[in-house]
What we know:
2 copies of one chain form a homodimer.
Chain A: H1 3-12, H2 19-29, E1 36-38, H3 39-50, H4 56-69, E2 73-75, E3 83-85, E4 91-96, E5 101-106, E6 111-114, E7 123-134
Parallel strand pairs in A: 4-7
Antiparallel strand pairs in A: 1-3, 2-3, 4-5
Helix pairs in contact in A: 1-2
Bound molecules: manganese (II) ion (2 copies) and zinc ion (2 copies).
Chain A binds a DNA duplex through residues 15-21, 38-40, 54-58, 60-61, 80-82.
Amino acid sequence: MKKIDILKKLRSSGLRPTKQRVEIAKFLFEREKTFHFTVESLNKLLSKKSGSKIALATIYNTVHAFKTAGHLSEVEVRGNKTYFDTNVSNHHHFYDSETSELIDIDANDIIIQKLPKVPNGKKIKNVEVFINLKN
Amino acid sequence: MKKIDILKKLRSSGLRPTKQRVEIAKFLFEREKTFHFTVESLNKLLSKKSGSKIALATIYNTVHAFKTAGHLSEVEVRGNKTYFDTNVSNHHHFYDSETSELIDIDANDIIIQKLPKVPNGKKIKNVEVFINLKN
DNA sequence: ATCTAGTTTATAATTATTCTAAAGTGAAAA
DNA sequence: TTTTCACTTTAGAATAATTATAAACTAGAT
Ligand SMILES: [Mn+2]
Ligand SMILES: [Mn+2]
Ligand SMILES: [Zn+2]
Ligand SMILES: [Zn+2]
């Protein structure tokens, strides 16, 4: 991902490209594979990578702005902390509770044959499949 | 559900049948349909029903003992608070984000035709399907 | 270069949950 | 029965994730 794309992500999130935000954005989006993280893990990885300690509030704010803009999604995982996901397409997850690790499943790799009838007056927004793993 | 069953639920959870625990257990298990709740909502409903204010710590402790004993399950829902479920069989959920309401889906009402290959050395513990609703 | 709206940050506040320790109680034993 | 004591309840403190605050800073327009 080019610097120009990073700047685009920031601008489209209503964020001016400050040093901190660019560092967070590059860390999140300059990668090949999906990245699943919590604010805590992101903070640790950022500190380790560049020594520069970005305030937690800035990380929360930036991550939330990206989420609101649709550049990050949120994944529900058992536990207290919120997980974020750089994969914003419609997809599913394996969850390995041994390692607390999320693994992407492409939407096309799961086919649901039978669905229940939807409650009156409601429509399906989306379907999420969560596969818990054990050893 | 008979009083004897309530006592059974308590004993099998390693809990002596005190006044508070019996009140909580009756409220949770003496009903026909599944009951989905948070500790906060349960607390409010219990207070409203009987005026007797059971300490929050007691509600947390009792609910957790039931969960550990397998008499309650936990459901992952977007948001900060933990949801519990009196339906401990394998099943799925609709989630109506307008009303923050969970609705049970029987396991047999969803058939998954194609599943992805599981990561090496891992097995599937269970599959949870979550259907988000909109109006 | 100056100015200002937007930003960062340390710190406080909030919220859900868990812990603690003192006072209370169920039920087994005497 | 009364005694006894391990188990309970409870109020309040502690913890942990997240959000709010407000003072010091800065990007970028002028
Ligand atoms: Mn969660
Ligand atoms: Mn949740
Ligand atoms: Zn993902
Ligand atoms: Zn349910």
